[in-house]
Design goal:
The chain has one helix spanning 18-71, and strands at 77-79, 82-86, 90-96, 99-104, 109-114, 123-129, 138-147, 153-162. The protein contains one helix and eight strands, in the order H-E-E-E-E-E-E-E-E. A five-stranded antiparallel beta sheet has the order 1-2-3-4-5, covered by helices on one side. By secondary structure, it is of the alpha+beta class.
Length: 163
């Protein structure tokens, strides 16, 4: 018998179906979204920690500056959290808004020592004369409360001996 049509064997298909490709693209998309979210959180954390580190440094520099100013100050007094003293003219240190400011009468200007100080109660100063010591010597207690990038506040306190 003669059959004009040959029977064709079915060969296995060597490609992917549309559904398989779409499922893979969907899974890859979920993976990319999740990894980008993690990456952006890492970058935000880095930026915040860098800003916080910078704020800590600025606070330390401000405290050291006040300590250096008090080394040469003659009569020191505090009234309403304003430190007043004489060194190369009249000077005062006070809180203006959210800035800790050094006013110098020699150039009649305000110099910002520190920013991001908590407004209102972020700076306090108290001078206590030492009984029996030389005139003008005492302890200057300063407290600075500063705010960081994640709305956390930290209080720094320093007691300075004024001669």
């Amino acid at each position: 018998m003669f059959f004009p049509f040959k029977r064709i064997k079915k060969q296995p298909l060597l490609g992917f179906t549309l559904i398989e490709i779409l499922c893979v693209l969907l899974l890859v998309g979920f993976f990319l979204v999740a990894s980008m979210n993690i990456y952006s959180n890492i970058i935000k954390s880095y930026v915040n920690s860098d800003q916080d580190y910078s704020q800590v440094q600025k606070c330390q520099i401000a405290i050291v500056r006040v300590m250096r100013e008090m080394e040469h100050a003659s009569p020191v007094s505090t009234t309403n959290n304003i430190i007043s003293y004489t060194y190369d003219g009249d000077r005062s240190i006070f809180l203006s808004g959210t800035n800790l400011v050094l006013y110098t009468s020699s150039d009649n200007a305000n110099h910002i020592l520190l920013d991001n100080v908590v407004a209102g109660s972020g700076f306090s100063a108290n001078f206590t004369p030492i009984a029996g010591a030389t005139s003008g010597s005492g302890l200057l207690n300063i407290q600075i409360t500063t705010s960081f990038s994640n709305s956390v506040t930290t209080k720094y306190e320093e007691i300075i001996y004024v001669r």
